[in-house]
Design goal:
The chain is α+β, with helices and mostly antiparallel strands. α4 runs antiparallel to α5.
């Protein structure tokens, strides 16, 4: 306890309060870091600058993001899905050697395609298993980062 008090430059009776303050500071810095990573992955913008590929009546968005957390990848896909009713999305977030896969379909695309089927294709192509979610948005994981382009092509093949 004395070493902790000395290292944190507080009296022993103030140690608990100081540790709580340090924990809050770490949490705030982690949040700032996550936001900075997200902004960097999006090229400084709030939305990705991805040109869709027209496949039949749908706009396909396939992209690999480096350094994003799964929640960030999902959020980007969800935002785009809501803005683009004809969108079919396959996003791959690579972070610390792991792949988070998110597929999403816009409202107009839901009649012909569902996100869980697409995420399963993408996951299997990258060495993962299954995945799931709602008809409009699904998530899975993968392990073979070098197979992401193959997974994007597999999803495109399923669309049309």
């Amino acid at each position: 306890m004395n070493n902790l008090s000395f290292n944190l430059k507080v009296k022993p009776q103030e140690l608990e309060e100081r540790v709580s303050a340090v924990q809050a500071q770490v949490k705030a810095l982690e949040k700032q870091l996550a936001e900075a990573k997200k902004k960097a992955a999006l090229g400084g913008a709030g939305v990705p600058k991805i040109d869709p590929e027209q496949i039949g009546e749908f706009k396909f968005y396939g992209h690999k993001f480096e350094g994003l957390e799964p929640n960030d990848v999902r959020g980007i896909a969800e935002d785009l899905r809501k803005k683009e009713p004809d969108a079919i999305i396959a996003f791959f977030g690579v972070n610390e050697g792991k792949i988070s896969i998110v597929t999403a379909v816009g409202d107009n695309a839901k009649a012909k395609h569902d996100a869980p089927s697409l995420v399963k294709i993408a996951s299997e192509a990258t060495g993962g298993k299954g995945g799931g979610g709602r008809p409009e948005l699904a998530q899975a994981g993968g392990v073979e980062v070098d197979k992401i382009e193959t997974a994007i092509e597999a999803v495109k093949g399923e669309i049309g």
